[in-house]
Design brief:
This protein is α+β, with helices and mostly antiparallel strands and about 375 residues long. It contains eleven helices and 18 strands. It has a six-stranded mixed beta sheet with strand order 1-2-6-3-7-16, with helices on both faces. It is elongated. The chain binds zinc ion (ZN).
Amino acid sequence: MSELRPVMPILLREARKREKRMARLLGEFVRCESPSHDKAAVDRLGRLVAREWRRRGAKVTVLRVADRGNHIRAELAPKKKSRGSQILVLGHLDTVYPLGTLEKMPFRVRTGRAWGPGSFDMKAGLVLALFAVDALRAARIPLRKRLVFLWTSDEEIGSESSRRAIESEAGRSEAVLVLEPAFGHEGRLKTSRKGVGSAELTVTGRAAHAGVEPEKGVNAVHELALQIARLMKWNDKRRGITVQSTVVGGGTASNVVPAKASAQVDIRIARKSDAPALARKFRSIKPILKGARVDVRVGAMRPPLERSAGVRRLFHHAQALMRQIGRNLGEAITGGGSDGNFTAALGVPTLDGLGAVGDGAHSLNEHVLIRALPERAALLAGLLATI
Ligand SMILES: [Zn+2]
């Protein structure tokens, strides 16, 4: 990392001139709905985003995916040779909202806020990246490294189709900047994220008449309840482990001893090293009631983003940039995962939560603070120019 040039005042000035344009482009992106499971819809937004990058002279590559939206890769190269060093900027095109959500929560701007599905998580992030590049150009600050912007289509559903691309770009990068929403209205960055996993328990018992001869049955719901009570003891606040049964089901009728029951379990860990032992614990689950069977499926784990030395260095760099414009930048830990978890797990310094300031992700209340957009664009631009 080089000496820190005083780039922020001019970047902020240039970004502020573009505040209205940022809000307008955000409106265009939000109105183009893009639920993860709808390829055609996500591809529509991908085309809009690609158009904006081509307008800025980026080399745009569409990474085609058959059953999910395509990923968009935009590259900007410095004028001078950069000796191969690269910064990766990550974001996603998809949202958790089904098509038609706009009818009940239309894009609107009021009291300094922009509302709408996916505005905060994270279409405003897509906008910030574009205007960070504009601010750098207007301020005549040259790029010193190759910048790769990767906009993926399936972050909200686990990044199965994008993980390979994310990891291979990260492997070529010296830093990864993630435009997921900031934490809180003071815009804190996310320097630590929990790892996210899942498990599913399926219990098989035996049906019988619940009143006449219950002793002939094996109650799958009872077995599941006993298992869930046991799982609750695996929560470990001190180590940052949470195990939460989230979706349960079972039984067929109120007078039948149920033969089937199942539970989905959400698993979060703060330390990568806790993953194998926890997975082993799940796999070694044995039935408690006589005659019951318990099948356990443990899903793939998104590793935690740990606050490594590289993460801390990047964060302090961002803090120093914000001080140039008289701002205090804070940091936060979150239980939610992002694609930054993958890149940090590879050992590449990753700074997350660089996106918009706002609130209400994944809810009717989702919005961004418009006056914070220029500041966030300037911060991203400052990082791109000085890392
Ligand atoms: Zn997101």
